[in-house]
Amino acid sequence: MTPDWQCAVVTLVHYLIFVLLTMHSAACISTTGVTCDLAVSKRQIFLGGVVVILTFRCSFAGDGVGAFVAFLLDVLGLVYIIGPLSVLVAFVDDNHRSLYRKLLIALLYVVWASDSGAYLVGKTLAHFHYKCYHTLAPHLSENKDYEGTIGAIVFGVVAMAAASEMLNLPGSIGTKVGCSVLAVLFGRLGDLFESLLKRAAGVKDSGSLIP
After folding, report:
1. Whether the Cβ atoms of residue 60 and residue 6 lie closer than 8 Å to each other
2. Is 88 exposed, middle or buried (0-12, 13-18, 19+ CB in 10 A)?
3. How far apart are CA 179 and CA 106, in angstroms?
4. Which domain holds residue 91?
5. What is the pLDDT of residues 87-136, one digit of tens each?
6. Euclidean distance between CA atoms 32 and 52, whole angstroms
């Protein structure tokens, strides 16, 4: 499916919103720290972009239902990109920069280890000719199963324990284990959601483009 000019316009609006939000965050951090006295808030920038997209879709779409569905998908794409990235803005807070950097590093350790754990468990089970895989969502991805998820959780918890020891992270063991499990589960859900988007766009096997 080839994107049309309307998709290109919406993509440019997405890019503009992201740039404005990034500039807003940078200006606030460099001037007043946590609080910000700029005339336009981040919420106003985001909502303004949503209004622009809605107006554009309604103006050039012949079908009202189709325009509304396209608008919802546009907003979903905007939130999917800006939402997770906006979380990272908090990690540059001057008051807690050292702690936030440690937490970010620990989170990356958990994500990397969980992906590796799921892969290694899958390869190990395949080596022993394991046949009874229990897929999470076979209509979205046949490669995401409960066995791999268990391996991802185990590796993620081990990675958090190692990161906690190396970085001297605060908090109880239960809190760290719980956060690790949640991070792994959200990561698996994110993989399934990405598979859903790829299937909807007809590019489910796009990874095969790279040998």
Report:
1. yes
2. exposed
3. 11
4. 1-29+39-95
5. 666 555 556 667 777 887 888 889 889 988 888 888 888 877 777 777 77
6. 30
